[in-house]
Every structure is written in C-alpha cells, then in structure tokens.
Amino acid sequence: MNSSHPFLDIPPGGGPHRRRPRGAVRSLTAVAAVAALALGGAYAAGLGPFESDTGPDPEAVAAARAFLADWAAGRLPQAAARTTGPDRAEQVLASFTTGLDLGTPRLMAGEPEESGAGDGTLTVPFTAKMPVTGLGTWTYASELPLRKQKDGAWKVEWTRSLVHPRLSGTEKFRLEREETAPVEATDRSGETLSAATHPLLTPVLAQLAEGGGGPRGAVLLVDRETGEVLRTEASFGGRGTGKGDKPVRTTLHAGWQSAAERALARAGGKNAALVALRIDDGEILAVANAPASGFNRAVSGTYAPGSTWKIVTSGALLLKGAVAPDDVVDCPRYQTVGKRFQNVETSAHPGATFREAFTESCNTAFIGLRGRLGEGELGDVAKQYFGVGQTWHVGVPSYDGSVPVPRDATEKAASMIGQGRVQANPLIMASVTATAVSGTFHQPTLVRGAEDTTDTTPLPPEVAHRLRALMRATVTEGTARVLAGLPGDIGAKTGTAEVSDDRDNNGWMVAHRGNVAVACVVEEGVTGAGSAGPVIRALLSAVPDS
Known about the structure:
By secondary structure, this protein is α+β, with helices and mostly antiparallel strands. Helix content is about 30%, strand content about 20%.
C-alpha cells in the first residue's frame, strides 16, 4: 500500500517540513503501509476521552475505540487482546480480509448504547469503510458488544459477527472481479491512445473501460462449504455507455501526453503523477502516473498539497482584504501553535512582506495570519471559488478534494500551509492553478460532454491579478527559479508536504504558461523544487508553444 491511498484521510504528524533521520533501508511499500496503518487506524476510529459526565462508562467507550484503532491499523494481536477470545479473534480478523484485496480500513465509532438488560453490557455501533483495491469502497455497519470483566476492565465480547453482521461459521465473503476488455481511446484529434504507446496512461485507460464505468466487481456472501453465492454485499463499476466497439474520444493531446510521460522519468523512479489541463475550459491534455502498474494517483490520489495550497490560502486572505502583497508579515524560523511548525531548513526572513512570504514559501508567516480567516473560511473559499470539495464529473472516478473545518488551533495552522486534513491531488492542484490565474473555475474533464453540477463564483479580477503576480515572482525570484529562463510568462508555486516521521517529504510543483496549467507530485521527493521542479521544467521545455 501507499500512503496516498484514495481512502486515507489521516493528517501527517510533526511540523510541516520536519522529518527524523531514516533508519535501516526499507522498501517504499513497506514504509508506506506501516505509516498509513499506524496513523490511519487511530484517527479514523476516533480515539479520545469520552467527554460526557453521564451515560456509558468512559472506560468502556475507550476500550471499544482502542479495539477499532488496533484493527484499522493492522495491529491484530493487540486488537484481539482487547476481546474475550483473543486467539479466535486474531484468527478471524486475519482471515476476514483473505482474497478481498482490501486496503486500510476506516472504522468510525458511533454513540455508545447501554443494553438496558442490567447485565453489565454496552454496545458501540460503528461504520466500516473497506477500500477494495481498484474498485471502490465497501461500506457497512456493525456493532461492538462490551462486557466488564471481573478485574474491572472492559473487553469486547468476542463474536465473529461483530466483524460483519453476516460473517458466520457457515458464511464468508468472496471478491469477484469482472474482466473488461482493454479500452480503445483516442486523443482530441482522433489519434489512437494505448498502453503500448503511452504506458503511463494505463491506469486511466483501465478506468475508461466501458465508457467511463471503470473496472467492475462485487463482494459476495458465499457458503463456506459449497461456495454457493447467497447474496451480493457490494457491487462496483458502471454499466458503460453502450458504445460497443467505438473508441472513447478523450480531451487528451497525444503530444502533451508523450511529453508528460518523458518528463515524469525525471522523477527518478519514484511514485509520481502529473496533470496538464487547459485553463480556459478545464479540458485535460495529459495524465501521467508512475508506475504504470499503479492506480490513477493523479486523479484519485489523496495527498497533503503542502505549500502549493498557499495559492488558495492567499486567495482567501486577498478576498477579504486581510492582507496586501506589500504588507509586512514577518517570517520567523518557528511558529508554535500547539506544536512547533518550521520553514524548510529552518530558514527565516525577518521583516518579510506577504509577497516575499509567498515567493519564499514561508510557513510561519502564513500560520501567523490564521487569525484573519474564520474557522471554516478556507474551506468555504476553496469550495465556492475553486470548486474543491464539490462533486466533479471528470469522465473517470476522481477524488475532488477535502478541506474540513479545523478541529483545533493546531489543525487550523496546518491547513493554512496545505497540511493537516487538507487533501488534494495533481488534478485538483492543476485546476486550482488554472482558477487562480484566470479567475474562473472550469470543471476538469477527460471526456467531452461530461456532466457538470458544480456551482462556483468567479474571483474578483484584482485577486486573480495579484495571484498571477505572486506566482510569476516565485519563478523570477523565489523557490520556483528552476523554471526561470524558459520561454513564456511562467508562474509557479512549489510545495513540500510532510508525510510521516520515517518517510521523506513529498515534493510538489504547480505552474502555468499560456493556456495550460500543470501540477506534479513526487512521493518522497524531499522538496518540490528539487523533485517536481525538474519534471515540470522538462515538460514545458518539450512543449514551448503552450
């Protein structure tokens, strides 16, 4: 698994650009899985004290949530130890996922309920969201029975059905995938696109199968002995458009796609993704994913966008007149809001203007401005002006971003710099860039004629003008100087997003030139300028007429 799995919503820990020295060399997949599991389970299960002074015993609720956290994080021995039947519990929890191809689950506890039977039992309902690789999310509800033990400790009363209400000694689950023929697709001019000619388009072509319905499959309840299918628990994938053997006409440009794939080779073999789209209508020109055998991380991935998100934060501040480019905002080495945030390489820029804070990507300056935005204002601006968090109909399954209302001051500080629970991907950030420089959001599309249900407000011309100027200055005198010297009036923003203490930071860069906006993320790229920067430069060098 990878930490950018589309169903993870876990904020990274620590400061925005801080990481500890790496230990012994481990595979990227293993590190990503451990980091995702360790963080994902605890947060998704909703760990924390039970705040009410009345009602169910807080220790019982804590026991239930700790069980869910361990289960979600893959700590099965620890989860089993919290039950009344640890040996059997560990065996069932491990075998439940066999053959189902599940990713990291999200297990969300509900409000506890007292049984009313006077037998010392308590029930905690929970919702399980199980991501089925390449298909979608299997969501169901179950509940945890808890009983107080003789020693006073609360434990989960073990029963197989708590894992899923229909799991039993005679019934289990099986995943079946429906094979779909490779899709035939063409670019905007009718040129054929295939995995052979454009290998980094492979994940997209798989989703275009059956006219955008994508891969199909189902989770089935079957008899353990006979294998007889008893019912369908969850089904995935659309029925297609009935176009038969007709190729799918896309908005892609074969030349841009080829250039994007060559440019992504500059990522040095790391997991990476890139999107290029037209600014005036949102039509996608190129989508490249590395490795080709992975999922469509460019469109479906969930990443902290890091400092590229400062485009949206700046837009929010400028919209309400909370800051002007020449205002002095200062940029100290550190800013403490519940925890210590810092700048890349702990740099400081005393007396910096807001313009300099943007071009030098000063985290502490932006965090220092958090009080000038309301608690949910950043998310409101992202949705209303940039379309982030609305439902997009791209033509393939997409993740359309999330900017939750911060739960505390620390999370608000993190959201100002694209960390915390702010989630995006290259498609979203390419669209954010296009919206910032044009002033108008256009739903990104991969297939012409896609439905558009978005509803946004154009940015005031002065705000768009100032955002363009800030991005241009970032190229001429700031952190995006790697693009300086290329032809055209290029604007850009770099980003470095923390993932976890034992993984290098993800590197980001967004840029625009002419009528095209691009965005690139390189997992464990360390810095945006150093990893995504060469990719974007290679792309823009190959297509100088953009």
